[in-house]
Structure formats: structure tokens, C-alpha cells
């Protein structure tokens, strides 16, 4: 595991003790957002924030939650500035361990996210959180924590703590979660207790902060650190039947806005972007049937992608993100989408949310 650098975290605690103003941020998916908690105040994130309030009553503390359900670190690295970093956080808890798949691709997007946070002007302390699928014990912590260790960043694993106690019979699965993934109020409480216990351990260590370790070179190819999300606010594609969504977006959880809508078969939209990595973000909806679209990259009609707007799960509409170019040649690329004609007149429109490029 190597040495964990607690310099930034100890400085945060020292500043809080002195009564300074600090912003505590949380960034991740549905568990961070508060899914399955009966109220946001019962979520792990808010419980952890309340510990800071109780522990440092003189401090002026501000809370920011950038969780969005069903999203990965690939989307996260493209939105972290607008949904979190613009608030100049002093501490950030990051969790994508049940949304990212355990593979090298998401290890690379996760590293891009972590580097972007660590190098932000406010120089936040970071704690990595590893949630878990309670039915299987699956998560991406092996890949994520390898990145954390590379940057000497601490991490707390629910797989190694709460999940192991559940397996040993201390808790039943249903005491912690109804669906095997999202903690209920008790699950959120136990999750918060693990993070709080770590913070208390750091606070009890009376040693002064050390000089922060030098910032290492990337562990992966790190193509995604400067990822950008392109919506109607950032790019003007050629619209050949698609319409720009004119409804106003209200907050980061008003997710299906600022995109483009294809309502009829044959509608097209064309983008020109300079990148080596491209992904298309579109809505998969539980309102069926839904329209599909054909994607062509650089005019290659032999290798088209079919983007299916029908969502096979039932928990709600999904912000689906599909990579179409990874570590390609960095040059100007043409992305064309065309709505297909196979779902009939009453099908739900095809909603294109963004392109994410790097």
C-alpha cells in the first residue's frame, strides 16, 4: 500500500479547529446522492458533514454534494468542475466503486478524476470510498485503490468492513439494503461510521502535518484528466432534424436537459470535434418503446454503432455513456447520429445529452 500522505487532511482539521471556513464535498453516484435513505440528512454524506460540525463547532462549514445516480468516473471527470470544484472544496470524498467496472478503462478515468481534484486551486484533501454490492462483494476497489496508493491518498473500504461483518452474521443483508446495493438508513449510518472512525483516528494522531509528497507522474496513460463535456452550452452541431432542448436546466440533478432531441426517423445531428477519446451520452428510458439511433464515426459505414434508447432495467431513466473512441488518433473527427425508423410513431424520442471528449 505504501505511505499515506495525511498532510492535507490534517491541515483541514487544524483550520477547522481554529474556526476557519471550509467546504466539505462529496462526489459519486447514487449512494452519494442519498439513494434509499429516507431523507438526505440520513445519507452517509450528510452524516459525515454533521460530524465535522459537531467536532469543530467554531468552524464555518459548507456542504456540497455532487452525487448523481447511475454515473461513473468517466462522466465524473467531465463534470467535476461544475458540480463540485467550482465551490473550492477543502475536503472531497470520492466514491465510484460500484458504478465503475473493475477494469483498466475505468482505472484510467478514475485517475483523471483524482488528478483533477488533487491539482485544483483549493488543494483539497481527498478520501476515497469503496462501496460494494452486498450480494456479491463486487466493486472496483482493487483498481481504484491502486490509483489512491499511487498518489498516497487514504481510502475507506465498505467491502473490507461492513460487508465482512454482514458475511460473518453480525448483520443480515436486509438490515443494510433492500436491493443489495443501496444502503438504507442503517446502512448509510454504518457507512458514515467507517469514514468518521478514520477521521477520528487521524485527528487523534497528534503529529504535525508533514511536507506534502511530490506529485507523481500518472500511473495509467491518463487520457481523461482534461475531459470535457459538450452540451448545447459548449458546441453547436449541425442539426438535420434534431432539435436543441430549450428547457432550462435547474441544478446538477436536473439531468435530462441541455441536450438534443430526435423525434422522427431520419433525423440527423453532426458534430466535428478534435479529440483522441470520444464518448456519447444519451438517455436510456423505461418509457418504452423508445427510438434508437445509428452512430457513424468518421464516415465509417462498415462499423456503425446502434444506440438503443430502451432501458432494460426498471429503476428509472439512465444517463448512459458509451465510448466510441479510446486512445485513437488525436485529430478532427466527425460524429453523425441518425434516428432509426423501427419503433413507430408513438415511441419516446431519442435524447442525446452530450459528447464527452478527451
Your description of this structure?
The protein is an alpha+beta fold. It folds into two domains: 7-204, 3-Layer(aba) Sandwich (Rossmann fold); 228-357, Galactose-binding domain-like (Jelly Rolls). It contains nine helices and 16 strands. Strands 6, 8, 9, 11, 14 and 16 form a six-stranded antiparallel beta sheet that branches. The chain has a five-stranded parallel beta sheet with strand order 2-1-3-4-5, with helices on both faces. Strands 7-10-15-12-13 form a five-stranded antiparallel beta sheet, with no helix packed on it. Helix 6 (141-150) links the parallel strand 4 (125-130) and strand 5. Helix 3 runs parallel beside helix 9 (185-204), helix 4 (73-83) packs parallel to helix 5 (104-118) and helix 5 packs parallel to helix 6 (141-150). It comes from Petralouisia muris. Keywords: Hydrolase. This is SGNH/GDSL hydrolase family protein.
Mean pLDDT: 95
Poorly predicted regions are none
In this structure, how is the largest beta sheet organized? 6 strands, antiparallel
Number of strands: 16
Order of helices and strands: HEHHEHEHEHEHHHEEEEEEEEEEE
Share in β-strands: 15-25%
Total domains: 2
- Helical content, roughly? 25-40%
| CATH structural architecture of the largest domain | 3-Layer(aba) Sandwich
| CATH domain class of the largest domain | Alpha Beta
Using the coordinates shown, work out and report the CATH topology of the largest domain: Rossmann fold
Number of helices: 9
Q: Structural class, judged by helices and strands?
A: alpha+beta
Q: What's the CATH superfamily of the largest domain, by name?
A: SGNH hydrolase
What does the overall shape look like?
Answer: globular
Rg to the nearest angstrom? 21 Å
Distance between the first and last residues' Cα: 30 Å
Protein name: SGNH/GDSL hydrolase family protein
Keywords: Hydrolase
Organism: Petralouisia muris
Amino acid at each position: 500500500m505504501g505511505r499515506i500522505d495525511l498532510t492535507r487532511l490534517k491541515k483541514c482539521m487544524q483550520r477547522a479547529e481554529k474556526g476557519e471556513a471550509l467546504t466539505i464535498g462529496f462526489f459519486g453516484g447514487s449512494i452519494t446522492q442519498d439513494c434509499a435513505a429516507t431523507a438526505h440528512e440520513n445519507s452517509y454524506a450528510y452524516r459525515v458533514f454533521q460530524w465535522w460540525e459537531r467536532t469543530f463547532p467554531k468552524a464555518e462549514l459548507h456542504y456540497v454534494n455532487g452525487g448523481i445516480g447511475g454515473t461513473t468516473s468517466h462522466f465524473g471527470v467531465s463534470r467535476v468542475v461544475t458540480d463540485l470544484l467550482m465551490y473550492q472544496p477543502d475536503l472531497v470524498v470520492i466514491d465510484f466503486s460500484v458504478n465503475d467496472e473493475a477494469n483498466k478503462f475505468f482505472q484510467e478515468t478514475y485517475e483523471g478524476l483524482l488528478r483533477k481534484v488533487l491539482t485544483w486551486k483549493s488543494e483539497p484533501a481527498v478520501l476515497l470510498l469503496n462501496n460494494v454490492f452486498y450480494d456479491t462483494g463486487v466493486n472496483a476497489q482493487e483498481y481504484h485503490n491502486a490509483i489512491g496508493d499511487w498518489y498516497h491518498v487514504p481510502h475507506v473500504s465498505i467491502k473490507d468492513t461492513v460487508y465482512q461483518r454482514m458475511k460473518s452474521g453480525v448483520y443480515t443483508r436486509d438490515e443494510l439494503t433492500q436491493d443489495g446495493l443501496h444502503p438504507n438508513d442503517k446502512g448509510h449510518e454504518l457507512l458514515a461510521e467507517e469514514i468518521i472512525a478514520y477521521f477520528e483516528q487521524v485527528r487523534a494522531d497528534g503529529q504535525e502535518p508533514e511536507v506534502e509528497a511530490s506529485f507523481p507522474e500518472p500511473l495509467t496513460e491518463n487520457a481523461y484528466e482534461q475531459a470535457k463535456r459538450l452540451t448545447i452550452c459548449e458546441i453547436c452541431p449541425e442539426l438535420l432534424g434534431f432539435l436543441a432542448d430549450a428547457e432550462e436546466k435547474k441544478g446538477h440533478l436536473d439531468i435530462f436537459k441541455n441536450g438534443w432531441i430526435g423525434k422522427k426517423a431520419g433525423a440527423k445531428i453532426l458534430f466535428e470535434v478534435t479529440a483522441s477519446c470520444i464518448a456519447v451520452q444519451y438517455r436510456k428510458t423505461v418509457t418504452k418503446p423508445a427510438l434508437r439511433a445509428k452512430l457513424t464515426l468518421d464516415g465509417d459505414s462498415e462499423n456503425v454503432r446502434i444506440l438503443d434508447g430502451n432501458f432494460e432495467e426498471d429503476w428509472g431513466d439512465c444517463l448512459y455513456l458509451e465510448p466510441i473512441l479510446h486512445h485513437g488518433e488525436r485529430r478532427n473527427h466527425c460524429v453523425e447520429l441518425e434516428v432509426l425508423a423501427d419503433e413507430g410513431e408513438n415511441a419516446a424520442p431519442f435524447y442525446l445529452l452530450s459528447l464527452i471528449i478527451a
